[in-house]
User: Fold these one by one.
Assistant:
Number 1:
Amino acid sequence: MVCKMSGESLFEIRNVKKYFPIKGGIIPKAVEWVHAVDGVTFDIRRGETFGLVGESGCGKTTTGRLIIGLEKPDEGKIVFKEPNGRTYVINEISGRDRKYIASKIGVVFQDPHLSLNPRMRIKSIVREPLDIHGHMHTSKSEKDELVLKMLENVGLDASYANRYPYELSGGEKQRVAIARALIANPEFILADEPVSSIDVSIRSQILNLMKDLISQFKLTCLFISHDLSVIEYISDRIGVMYLGKIVELAPVEAFKDALHPYSITLISAVPVPGKRSKKRIILKGAVPSAINPPPGCRFHTRCPFATPKCKKEEPKLIEVEKDHLIACHLYEQ
Amino acid sequence: MSKLLDIRNLRVYYYTRYGVVKAVDGVSLEMEKGENLGVAGESGSGKSTLALSILRLIREPGKIVSGKILFNGEDLLKKSEEEMRKIRGARISMIFQDPTSSLNPVYTIGDQIGEAISLHQFNVEGGLLDWFLAKFKRSYVREVEDKVKEALSLVGVSDPSKRMKEYPHQFSGGMRQRAMIAMAISCRPDLLIADEPTTNLDVTIQAQILDLMNHLQEEFDVSIMLISHNLGVLSEFCHKIAIMYAGNLLELSDTETLFEDPKHPYTEALLQSIPRFGFKGKRLSTIPGKPPSLINPPLGCKFHPRCKYRIDGVCNKIPPPLIELDSGIKVACHRYLEECQ
């Protein structure tokens, strides 16, 4: 918690862009580009859980993949900072540095049915990061012990170790995925929609488990989800994405009174159990295509407050309160 | 005769090679005219099977074993297949979860909506050949087209005469769901079953679709059965909510009471375990364990292994009947049995 107060960053993401080509023609070449991530700048601070929220296609998963180095950005850079002052530029490193960084990162994917190898036993799945990340001096029996301990940490007893993934339910599989992400002592966890495919009565078990483990192992976490209630529950800071851009960055306490028109509509669109007569802002139309994103502010096509300026000029992220950043012309004065 | 739908002790089993899956195991449910009923439950709780059996769309290896489904007083389970065809789409219609896979990719949106209209309103029966032949009659084609346009503009598709000639891949997810709704309401049904209609959609689009369904209900006086695992969606849309668990109906209550004063321990635990926006701070409580297997469900109350109020010797032996409390709430739990007697 001390680290959180100091605000020291673990990842610095600076103006990162990633375009994906759409190929066409007889000799395939890029005819159009999908602007998946289009100039994103933010920090992930040591010890915090950063929640990234947005609708499908807004680039939140691509942002996650860029940060852990699974995609190379077309522009901008992503810096990983160690407490001792050493820095690594994620998109430039290779070889030993790349492997070292990989050992500092754990990933939990959305669909546990797809992210576990069906032909490996649970214990081999969880042990694999240990085998890969230079734990050569650890003996096999020590590794097995670590695996059992980690399984216990995620709430699975030793009887699971020899099973195969198909014998487990969705919630149990996600627990295995979490154990695998944590076993090599990472500093950072990327959780990409980890509870979206899990039943409601199990979801809270997984959320609480993740929350506990994050504080137990003093982890930094990037939590990606489309579900605002989940994001609000788990995060310390929240970033809202829309069409490849971050439109609002706020600490969770300030998020309930979000300021950007898109965040406001997003919040008003969330159905809250037990609240029937809620006033909703209903947006017209759907999210525009990321192939030819609208000029100016990307939200102006659906924004109820759009002015002529919004159609031409792109708003910059500005700080309106401490730690609360918004990209909107309404708040520029 | 105000009861639109009256399901009595319905049992639907799937005979798989691993054993008999009791997907719906003795469910009784009523729906008044003009009422929106929400059916909530986790995956495998039998909510979709319940919906499909109302339309008699249960396929092998599934079978409706026993029970009655009274629709306007007539038992749907006694109808012939031909009679059912006249009911499906005309008096009871359904919206499915995934509009992408429930629309045919090789027909235009207009053709697909027109199919339901020509079948039910112009009696163009039979195979595709009949349908194509009918298309040569000018006046008929124009009439169907007009109705398709009307249906599309009702669901808020702008420029319907252009968009009806487009194919499903040219529609976005929200627009496809609108087209599905247009198809479902084109014949003005009495009952509309919506099976997770917004699950695959983004929240802003979900708000649009829910708003549209609300609007249509007011305009056409159609009763909607909304099936969803999202209690938030149900609470904003439905008058009554039925909670299902492992093929049983556990609680049937009006929406306000359900959220303020849940009766069944499962409902109570479920409500405490979902993160609600704007309630940050409190730690979520969890329901221990996992949903039971439907092939070998626990004896007695199916929720008892996960229930914190279970009474040993009772809950693990006798399945609780669905009883009506003084407040009109129906609940299947032994805790309320004494209260009732």
Number 2:
Amino acid sequence: MFAATAVVAALLVTPLQPPAAPSAERPQLGTTQTDRTVDVTRGMRLTLDNQAGEIVVRTWDRDAVRVQARHSSRLQIDVRAGDRSVQIRRRGNGRGSVDYELSVPAWMPVRLSGTYLFATLDGVQGEVSAETVQGDIAVRSSSGQTVARSVEGRVTVDGAKGRIEARSVDGDVLLTGCAGDIVAESTDGNIRVTQCPATSLDVSTIDGDIIFDGAVARDGNVYLRVPEDTSATFAIRTYEGRFTSSYAAPLSGDYKRGRRVTFTLGAGGAAVEIEAFDGRIQILKPGEALPADVKR
Amino acid sequence: MRRTTAPSPTSDQGRDRLDPRTYEVLERNLRTIDRAIDEARRALEADPGNVYLNNHLAGARQRKLALLRRATALVYTEG
């Protein structure tokens, strides 16, 4: 059983490995059967609920939303631009999934939801919200508030800035090149945070592994590999585990069970806080080997 | 006034409304959280004044509550 929470600020370390490949279950977009473009103005948002299928959102430099959709011929896709939002709805008796490709202005807030939904958003600068149950979510290069949640699928956020919330229950959460205030959570999935100079980073899982900027947590153990020129203050606490460091920096006090101790590398500019309930916390130097049983 | 009772995500009614795979995932993850809660509770019994353990237990309970809320929302969405 593993439960750990880490809060990290402005820490950059070498990545361990690239994110996993996209899920094989992901549907493919095909022939477009609906293709509509509506003009929009700043202040409007886009909302789309797609129970089954894929949504790919890209940005362009027009103040307009283009909706391309592939679906059953018994379905119609309505696209309406109101005063405050663009609504996209399916009509008709046809069943089955709908795959969308949307082109939106970068400033536009986008809210997507569905049950068997696979969503990809690229370059949206407005608020992003994407929720699914049995699908994956991938967000790239967003810069407003980003919320991405799945129950069973993988959540990937790449190159995003701002306030980022990435959660899955059973799937992995992967963050790469993100900056800002980051919350990453999974219950049974792994969390991987790579090259993220976050102002704050809160990572937690119960039964998965945590890998962030070279750090690995597994079965209650947290391994944090940091460069020798790191400037950070570390706050460490374990209840049933122990703490070791390859750096000679002195601790703020005697290390005792459940007690929080701190140590500083360099000028201590960043704040790194790690808590593990029943595992070891180990600070490693670059090049030092992780234990052989740690999943890479 | 008529009151509607929410179907629990872990009840038979909740099971009937959810995709079987989703139900299994939710149930398994709730069990995982319950194990974490039990571990924290046992540790707290041995060390009742420990602030860290109290926070740890509270965090695990919050996580369970959040998952139950999500599951309940799914029961309504898919039902």
Number 3:
Amino acid sequence: MVKEIERAGIPVVHVCTVVPISLTVGANRIVPAVAIPYPLGDPNMEAADEKKLRRKLVEKSLAALQTPVSEQTVFEK
Amino acid sequence: MSKLRVVHYINQFYGGIGGEEHAGHKPECREGVVGPGMAINAAFGEAAEIVGTVICGDSYFNENVEEATKAIIAMVTNLQPDVFVAGPAFNAGRYGMACAAVAKAVQAELGITVATAMYEENPGVDSFRRDVYILKTGDSAAAMRTAAPALAAFTVKLAKGEAVTPEADGYFPRGIRKNKFVEDTGAKRAVDMLLQKINSEPFSTEYAMPTFDNVAPSAPVADISKATIALVTSGGIVPKNNPDRIESSSASKYGAYSITGVNDLTEATYETAHGGYDPVCANIDSDRVLPVDVLRDLEAEGKIGKLFETFYSTVGNGTSVANSKGFAADFTQQLLSAGVDAVILTST
């Protein structure tokens, strides 16, 4: 799905936990996530802290969307 | 000749530990055969014997690759095997990634014969087929009856150092070229092939070109504070009770859902339709997969222009590449005509 969106010329960031799969699939902007069942959260955290964590990941994704890339790029933690 | 010592790798499901709720299971080692190891061991006959089985949860492995690999290598080393076999993993993505990654690590660390098996769309194939022998299987455990003896026979053949080819033995080509002597010169073979082509006769190339389907990165968003951002997920987030009945695996459709006026995904209003991962966390708070709450905050603060009023969702579990492409090609038209500037796509 990532590739089809990008093919249309819309920049897309893939937020996912298993980065090697994303690289194989062909995403160009990749933001590593927390865990498979909760990529943008952590049930072990207090709700407020969890939301902060999610916000950080979303802000990182937005930053990735504003960054020019020439090849597959993983925006590390 | 004494029997080859084999160590077998399987996941928590085939290890009989449990389903998704146990996918976080740390590596453990058991003596002898477990689960599908029985069928593989039976097929080995007098040639080989499974002396130990390593079991690891699929999520644990993929979320802790280095740590898990280290622990598994130690367990395998301890059993002093001649051969290492993993799977078969069929179309289970995380399991396939684990089987192939572990096989690659064992091959590198112990220098022994390794083999695994899975379905062609398993991401483990494209990620690791150049590194290790991966035998082709069907897409579900229904193919175990044929996959187990095939994997056993293939493994013994490899261990004996017999010649194998992708065509004769049914493994995914590793991209290795071997020199061999043939009667005709390259020029004659090339002309023969050309004549066959002109005459519409079947012919096969001696060097298949890889097909790359990489898409060039799009230009970045110039001003995110004015941009319309859309959310897409393969994590199966749907309105409560899954109105479109998106399948929990091998999805045949995607859903388009309005989030106009929705500021937070709650347990009462949204859930995941995705099978293959433990849905508890996503069902309690679907923002953990699809971050609507945070994007609404950012929208209100003027950090982004607008959150697009529709999100698109399907289930990535075992869903074919062809279906996924079709879904995305379809909803991307809607994104384009609505003037969406960028997409955040989340996967579980």
